[in-house]
TrEMBL record, chain A:
This is Unannotated protein. Belongs to the complex I subunit 4 family. Keywords: Membrane, NAD, Translocase, Transmembrane, Transmembrane helix. It holds the Pfam family Proton_antipo_M. The lineage of its organism: unclassified sequences, metagenomes, ecological metagenomes. The chain crosses the membrane at residues 6-27, 34-55, 88-108, 120-137, 143-161, 173-195, 237-258, 279-302, 308-330, 337-359, 365-386, 407-428, 448-471, 497-517. It is found in: Membrane. Residues 67-131 form the NADH:ubiquinone oxidoreductase chain 4 N-terminal domain. GO terms for molecular function: NADH dehydrogenase (ubiquinone) activity; NADH dehydrogenase activity; ubiquinone binding. One of its GO terms (cellular component) is membrane. NCBIfam families: NDH_I_M. GO terms for biological process: ATP synthesis coupled electron transport; electron transport coupled proton transport. The keyword Metal-binding does not apply. Residues 137-448 form the NADH:quinone oxidoreductase/Mrp antiporter transmembrane domain.
From TrEMBL, chain B:
It comes from freshwater metagenome. NCBIfam families: NDH_I_N. The keyword Cytoplasm does not apply. It is found in: Membrane. Signal peptide: none annotated. Coiled coil: none annotated. This is Unannotated protein. GO terms for cellular component: membrane.
Length: 534, 507
């Protein structure tokens, strides 16, 4: 069993959805039943594979990569097909494997206009492969390829199945992300040429990787894209100013994806125009590629530059928190409001990251998962509201608790979780992130970070404000006349229950047992925090 | 009289060279093949017509056999006193030309027959042009390069004007011809100056002499000559500001010919540039690096900006081709510090560019069988009635935009690697300008994808059209190549690792 998992586990988890997509292409368009069966079967198979991996994962050793696969890929540039799972990747892998089948179940009843389930699910499965691949890749080029592969399926999901302004929103999403990743790849290539073998213990660790590293001397050019090797090197041999510029390239790539203020403008459009399923995947998983990139790649590989950038990241994160919250207060569209709340919530994650401490990074990892579940649920509910009311204009909605009480309660639950109510997952994503800013890594400006902490705390008040305001205007009161006796407005149906109840359970479980993630991710982020000296 | 003249000749002076027939076997197959095509045509005019595409394909694929045997043999063969060299790089390029031409023949088969154009001449001209391209791959001599260039250009002038009844096609042919001849004149003038200061026609000998001259007597002439030669080829590869012929020619020429010009002919221009720059001008990087940097920046920026405004998909591809040429010109600007990677990144780009661009043209030909137009709006709603074609086109467009997992990403990556690996300020600047241009280019490629996927069919006509088998074959080969090169770029890097060759150049 272990042998099988060690060789095939990660590969199968990544490529089972893709295999499903290929099978689906062979099924004629008319046989919708078979298409949906494959659409659900492939992510479930991947999830089963993932559960097997998690059961056999050595949690006592979660700071090290497990089930590693290392095969030659592009020899000329020494880029290899390296996969690995550690405590940092595991929560995000679990999140992806968890969300995608639920999205498929939600789509069971009907695929958004203009239909064509075959194409819809094919794209979704390709997207899943790319997302899982990004979280497991341990080679910069492999990561880049998976990272970029997420673009096209999402572009088409928004552009074909989206709302009225889908054309504008999809191209904006695409160009923004591509702009960032073009600079990211330039930064990767620069790392390849400039990074040198380190000295001391790091050199021993590097040599232990074997292969071409086995007999490297300190100062030898590394010529590698391997994340492990580059992390051990820790940008040895790169001048500080150069490292800061290289970090800037990665900052553009990851920061746009998160999205950080001021690169966030693509997000409200993409979220608002995307079909419900697209919004959920975008919020739950795709945004996390950015934050994950910071923790996995940018910070450990360029620790010195990370310290120089940390105040800037922290300031932008807090601007994002406040700006996103104020943006929420100005919205008249429910989906757009949730989108702006994403900007605000990802700000907390980035604030945690910017402290460069194990505590802050751990909070960020938790925040990613919590935000994925909660905002995913919010977008699900918004989608179902839209389906019934044919509008998301907050002014016209109201009385959801009367017309569809169960849905009203679920929305209430999600808003409470989102504003960080203790006992639900959102709390553990937000509160420790704020707290971590009290005591940033050694060498960072404590006064600045404590100011940021206060401002971020103000953000939580604003968050409570806009979320309660949203809930009050949509759920309380009596339904307006136009919807009072609308027969289309029904309560939660069975597919919605099947899709949402696991998320509801997840939010509660993580709320009560935050250790489920803190303990897994803890050792892994501790190693990273140590490399930056925090 | 003659007898006395003959007596005057020194007797043992001329030794006929020993010819390595294996080394020039591909060229011989093509030469014989094109003669057979012409002869068949003149003997049995009408009866042979339907077999012409098949015959042309056989000739092209037949020539591939000696290329493969030579590659298996692996040794570098030097002929004619060093002016003709068959090495691993030339074999990769020869194979590229043969396969590209084969795909063009596949694309032409029904187009030429349905349009009722002259068939036999069409194929013999294509095969003749391929002969010029093959010679170009091995030419290490100014005269050899010039002859190869003319041999591949003159058939192309005629092919561009093949749709005789059409004004635009005539315009295309004439413009291409006039600009081409003008470029040849500039090139030839530059070559004559090079010969004057370099005292030989052989590239390696000239390189040595140029290095000896350095900044001394004759240096201004060297500069002038190099710039003239580069400008001559810049016309051929349609680099800005010498690109003005390309959009009109591409739009007016029959679409398979456009594909041939955009891919094979442009590649040949680049091969010529590679030969003359890497084997000769590299002796003076201080002169050529700024020239190439300017050409590259202008081409990628201007090409992309104009492509944004195009409403015709062929014109769009023409301008995008100009921008892509800009990307390929960029590594020439780091030739001094990163010669090996510059060389192999250009060759890899050429191979991937051929696959994706030929594929895009094949899809356009297939679609225009229905729409009878190449306007971007006519592609509206294609996804709803021809999903297969739409997916194929999307793959090619995404590849051209440089999005993984399709070949284009590795092509661009290779260029970035070459630019940054050179570790010069110019290289970094080019890498960043290229990154910005990549995003601009993505916009207009996606614009086409958007029309196909998101828009409605313009006239509500959604009956799928039957696509001939040969065209499906052309698309199949290019799709497989585009995806394969993107997923496993190692396949390409292994055959294009020219480190030993490029290192030998450094001397």
């Amino acid at each position: 069993m272990m042998n099988f998992l060690n060789t095939w586990g990660l590969v199968l988890t990544i490529f089972l959805p893709l295999a499903g997509a290929l099978v689906m292409m062979a099924i004629p368009k008319q046989s919708e039943g078979a298409i949906k069966l494959v659409a659900l079967g492939a992510p479930l198979a991947a999830a089963a594979m993932g559960i097997l991996l998690m059961l056999n994962f050595d949690y006592g050793d979660s700071e090290n990569l497990q089930f590693m696969v290392n095969k030659n890929w592009i020899e000329l540039i020494n880029s290899n097909f390296i996969l690995g799972l550690d405590g940092l990747s595991l929560p995000l892998l679990a999140l992806t494997l968890f969300i995608v089948p639920l999205v498929v179940i939600y789509s069971w009843q009907h695929v958004p206009n203009p239909g064509n389930p075959k194409a819809f699910f094919t794209l979704m499965l390709i997207l899943e492969t790319a997302m899982i691949g990004s979280f497991l890749a341990q080679d910069l080029i492999l990561f880049f390829v998976f990272f970029e592969v997420t673009l096209l399926p999402m572009y088409f999901l928004i552009g074909v199945w989206g709302g009225e302004q889908r054309r504008y929103a999809s191209i904006k999403f695409f160009l923004y992300t591509l702009f960032g990743s073009a600079f990211m790849i330039v930064a990767f290539v620069a790392l390849y040429f400039l990074a040198k073998a380190p000295t001391g213990i790091a050199l021993e660790q590097l040599r232990a990787l074997g292969g071409s590293y086995a007999d490297m001397q300190a100062g030898d050019p590394l010529h590698s894209f391997g994340m492990q090797a580059l992390t051990y090197s820790g940008a040895a041999g790169i001048a500080k100013t150069t490292a800061i510029v290289i970090f800037g390239g990665m900052f553009l790539g990851f920061g746009i994806k998160v999205p950080m203020f001021p690169f966030h403008t693509w997000l409200p459009d993409a979220h608002t125009q995307a079909p419900t399923q697209g919004s959920v995947i975008l919020a739950a998983v795709l945004l996390k590629l950015g934050t994950y990139g910071f923790i996995r790649i940018a910070i450990p590989i360029l620790p010195v530059a990370a310290r120089a950038w940390a105040p800037i990241i922290g300031i932008l994160a807090v601007i994002g928190i406040i700006y996103g919250a104020l943006g929420c207060l100005a919205q008249t569209d429910m989906k757009r409001l949730i989108a702006f709340s994403s900007v605000s919530h990802m700000g907390y994650t980035m604030l945690g990251i910017s402290t460069l401490t194990a505590f802050g990074l751990n909070a960020a990892v938790f925040g990613m998962v919590a935000h994925g579940l909660i905002t995913g649920l919010l977008f699900f509910v918004a989608g179902s509201v839209k389906e019934r009311y044919h509008t998301l204009d907050i002014k016209r909605l109201g009385g959801l608790l009367i017309s569809a009480p169960k849905m009203g309660w679920i929305l209430g639950f999600a808003t409470m979780a989102s504003l960080g109510l203790p006992g639900l997952a959102g709390f553990w994503g937000e509160f420790p992130a704020i707290l971590s800013a009290y005591d940033p890594a050694v060498g960072l400006n404590v006064a600045l970070f404590r100011t940021l902490m206060v401002l971020a705390a103000v953000g939580t008040v604003l968050a409570a404000g806009y979320l309660l305001w949203l809930y009050q205007r949509t759920a309380f009161g009596t339904p307006s006349e136009e919807f009072a006796n609308d027969p289309n407005i029904t309560d939660v149906n069975k597919f919605e229950w099947m899709a949402w109840s696991p998320i509801l359970a997840g939010i509660v479980i993580l709320g009560f047992f935050p250790g489920l993630i803190f303990n897994v991710a803890g050792p892994a982020v501790e190693v990273i925090a140590r490399t930056v000296g925090g | 009289m003659i007898a006395t003249l003959l007596q005057l000749l020194p007797e043992a002076d001329f030794v006929s060279p020993t010819i390595d027939w294996h080394a020039i076997a591909p060229e011989m197959v093509i030469l014989v093949g094109s003669l057979v095509l012409i002869l068949l045509d003149s003997v049995k005019l009408e009866k042979a017509k339907p077999f012409m595409p098949t015959l042309a394909s056989l000739v092209l694929l037949g020539a591939l056999i000696p290329v493969i045997t030579l590659a298996v043999d692996g040794s570098t063969r030097v002929l004619f006193g060093g002016s003709y060299v068959v090495d691993s790089m030339s074999l990769v390029l020869k194979a590229l030309f043969l396969v590209s031409a084969y795909i063009v023949v596949l694309m032409s088969t029904n187009y030429v027959a349905d349009g009722d154009y002259w068939e036999s001449e069409y194929y013999s001209l294509i095969v003749a042009a391929v002969l010029g391209m093959l010679v170009m791959c091995s030419a290490r001599d100014l005269i050899m390069i010039f002859v190869a260039l003319e041999l591949l250009s003159i058939p192309a002038y005629m092919l561009a004007a093949w749709r005789k009844g059409d004004e635009k096609s005539n315009e295309a042919g004439l413009k291409y011809y006039l600009m081409g001849v003008f470029a040849s004149a500039v090139l030839l003038y530059g070559m004559s100056l090079i010969y004057g200061v370099g005292r030989s026609t052989r590239l390696d000998v000239i390189a040595g002499n140029l290095m000896r001259i350095g900044d001394g007597r004759g240096a201004p002439i060297v500069t002038l000559a190099m710039i003239f030669v580069i400008i001559g080829f810049a016309f051929k590869v349609s680099a800005v500001p010498f690109h003005t012929w390309a959009p009109d020619t591409y739009e007016g020429a029959p679409t398979p010919v456009t594909a041939f010009l955009a891919v094979a002919s442009k590649t040949a221009g680049f091969v010529a540039l590679i030969q003359i720059v890497f084997y000769c001008f590299a002796a003076r990087p201080d002169i050529i690096q700024p020239v190439f940097a300017v050409l590259a920046i202008l081409s990628m920026t201007v090409g992309n900006l104009i492509a944004l405004k195009q409403t015709n998909v062929v014109r769009m591809l023409a301008y995008s081709g100009i921008a892509q040429a800009g990307f390929m010109l960029a590594p020439f600007a780091v030739i001094e510090t990163n010669r090996e990677q510059a060389l192999s990144s250009i060759v890899i780009y050429l191979v991937i560019y051929a696959a994706m661009n030929l594929g895009a043209f094949a899809v356009i030909i297939a679609i225009s069988r229905k729409t009878r137009s190449a306007e971007i709006t006519s592609l509206g709603g294609l996804f709803s009635y021809m999903p297969g074609l739409t997916v194929a086109m999307t793959i090619f467009l995404a590849s051209l935009a440089g999005i993984p997992p399709f070949g284009g990403w590795y092509a661009k990556f290779g260029i970035w690697q070459a630019l940054i690996g050179g570790n010069t300020a110019l290289g970094y600047a080019l890498a960043i300008i290229m990154a910005i241009n990549t995003v601009v280019a993505a916009y207009y490629y996606l614009n086409v994808a958007k029309t196909m996927w998101f828009d409605e069919a313009p006239d509500g006509d959604t009956t799928p059209v039957k696509i001939p088998f040969s065209l499906i074959g052309a698309m199949g080969i290019t799709v497989v190549a585009t995806v394969l090169f993107g997923v496993l770029p190692g396949l390409l890097t292994n055959i294009s690792d020219f480190t030993p060759i490029a290192a030998a150049l450094g001397r």
